[in-house]
Amino acid sequence: MTAPAVEAAIHELMDLAWNLVYDLLEERGLLGDGLFVEEYTGIHSWVEDLSRYTVVHSRTVAVLFVDTRPVDAIAFHHDLLGADDPRAFFTIPG
Fold first, then answer.
1. Per-residue DSSP letter, 75
2. By Cβ atoms counted within 10 A, which residue in 15, 19, 20, 70 is the most buried?
3. 23-57: b (≥16 Cβ within 10 Å) or e
């Protein structure tokens, strides 16, 4: 994807679930100074079985979406990038 396409994908996903992402970050103690979508500059997405998994991250926080629903948030660390199974860093509710 080109940079404008990446930015558009991040904004679309985050905008769809703004309140849920905000609540999730607050619940995990990761809200910091607030939720600023423009700080989220990285996205990694893949399909497994019938679900799309997407990790959107800033320099400090990573949010995992299953399809279009945010399910977990963690403090971002570089081990997440290029991991064989990025889901292993998150807790996915059963």
1. E
2. 70
3. ebbeeeebbeeebeeeebeebbeeeeeeeebbbbb
Q: Which of 69, 76, 85, 93 is nearest to 30 (CA)?
A: 76
- CA dihedral angle for residue 71, residue 13, residue 15, residue 35, rounded to 10 degrees: 60
User: Taking the model in full, what pTM does it have?
Assistant: 0.90
φ, ψ of residue 75 in degrees (nearest 5): -70, 130
Highest averaged pLDDT of the listed ranges 13-22, 27-36, 65-74, 76-85? 65-74
